[in-house]
Amino acid sequence: MHPDHPPAWTPPAELKGQPRQVRRILRLFRPYRGRLAIVGLLVGASSLVSVATPFLLKEILDVALPQGRTGLLSLLALGMILSAVLTSVFGVLQTLISTTVGQRVMHDLRTAVYGRLQRMSLAFFTRTRTGEVQSRIANDIGGMQATVTSTATSLVSNLTSVVATVVAMIALDWRLTVVSLVLLPVFVWISRRVGNERKRITTQRQKQMAAMAATVTESLSVSGILLGRTMGRSDSLTASFAEESERLVDLEVRSNMAGRWRMAVVTIVMAAMPAVIYWAAGIALQVGGPEVSLGTLVAFVSLQQGLFRPAVGLLSTGVQIQTSLALFQRIFEYLDLPIDITERERPVRLDRIKGEVRFENVSFHYDHGSGPVLDGIDITVPAGSSLAIVGPTGAGKSTLGYLVPRLYDVTGGRVTLDGVDVRDLDFDTLARAVGVVSQETYLFHASVADNLRFAKPDATDEELQAAARAAQIHDHIAALPDGYDTVVGERGHRFSGGEKQRLAIARTILRDPPVLILDEATSALDTRTEAAVQKAIDTLSANRTTLTIAHRLSTVRNADRIVVLDRGRVVEQGTHEELMDLDGRYAALVRRDARMEPAHRTGAPGRRAEPAN
């Protein structure tokens, strides 16, 4: 674990004002405006064709049937059939195009969020739960699928249908149209209230889903299962998960039932409107009002019934948009995260890297309200030499090492590589120049070969084997039933600590960086395993600039130079012999280390010893 823990990360404040957020959502569709224009044309054509059907029906009832005009009747009936066919074909085409556009937008969002997170500093991930990050990408973006794939098309389609239908109704009889639409403002007000309520509940639901995802990620990993069972906490973890799930059940029910009764009233009223139309026409006839023909009345009711579906759909779409704003807001929070570590507009690229590293008056703190983790560090590491960084826990050793590959950026002074500030180098140069082997070795759930090729995708089998031999791990891999095709398991738990370390070293050997950062790479290993790993490290370190962050001092006695850190400052530096003669902090640490060595030789608990190859 990293000894210098920064404060917990808190997301930025919510976006101010829905109009701004809506405009930002619309910009997501801008690259696909050509396809959306085609969808708009299909929607318009479909709406016009569907509105024509009631007028054909009116002509059948008022002209073709009363006058016995069989030819006209056949032509009008054929027109109604053709209208249905064209409406269906247009509907299929618009669904295909709109779904494709929606999925591309979701792909763009997922990629943008993932790319943004890849550019965040290490500090962000030490302050954010992994499950929370996964939930934003999976649950939040996944929850927007219906919105981005169908809502836009549904909105345009329903709006076009409503407008075209209302115009047709006015053309038939404006008085009946007024009766039909008198309650429409009330319906709009109800849908807005329901939408706001669902947006609020959706925000709570997504936060709860993120909390559940974080719990699952942490407790159902290999490490989480081991911890839970060895601590006898499996039942309590299950009970805790059940409580989280129970809260989610309540939120899901509230989300689905929010405004359901109010929307049901809207549905009932709109479904009852045909009866109201017939009643109004009958009353008007009884009191001597204008007579409405049977064809007009049937056509009007047909239009009014046709208005019912898009009108309800339009209100429902408004509710969905309100709900989806909560999901978009959570995604935009991640897209708006400030990137601490960025590349210059015109970065420096080094083709040949010697490997000289300098820390020039370096200071570092995690935020402006906290004290310095490092203060006034001045160290020069000549190319090809070795520097050991030692000191008590929390002294800032790992932080100092992580400044070289820009896992963090200095807050004062500068770190240079071959005389160039690392902040001025392009990312590719820095990645080629600096390799890191840490105590916390990470292996993917993939084969040994795939894990090694992560450092060099085009590496040949011969190169893999040569790197593994140099790391003292080839014989062990070759003895496995599937050899280099053996799947290492989640986080490499099929291998012991020493084996994982040597795989990590082999991976770094393939990368062949001129500068090497070794972050307590052997501190958790027993002596026999350490001997094998140390031999691999010696091979890796040869002819490279090496910065070794050491907890166990026996591994750094041969370093060209040793620096002792305490509370973020250099308190001593020199060779092993010089520091022992000084009889200061370093000498005290060596004596403490010597007292602890007998216990260490018995082997680290929970790790099996393995013979050196």
UniProtKB/TrEMBL annotation:
UniProt membrane topology term: Multi-pass membrane protein
Subcellular localization: Cell membrane
Protein known as: ABC transporter ATP-binding protein
PANTHER family: ATP-BINDING CASSETTE SUB-FAMILY B MEMBER 10, MITOCHONDRIAL, ATP-DEPENDENT PERMEASE MDL1, MITOCHONDRIAL
SUPFAM superfamilies for this protein: ABC transporter transmembrane region, P-loop containing nucleoside triphosphate hydrolases
Entries under Pfam families matching the protein: ABC_membrane, ABC_tran
InterPro entries: AAA+_ATPase, ABC1_TM_dom, ABC1_TM_sf, ABC_transporter-like_ATP-bd, ABC_transporter-like_CS, P-loop_NTPase, Type_1_exporter
Organism, scientific name: Streptomyces thermogriseus
Domain ABC transporter: 357-592
Transmembrane intervals: 36-57, 72-97, 152-172, 178-195, 264-287
GO molecular function per UniProt: ATP binding
Domain of life: Bacteria
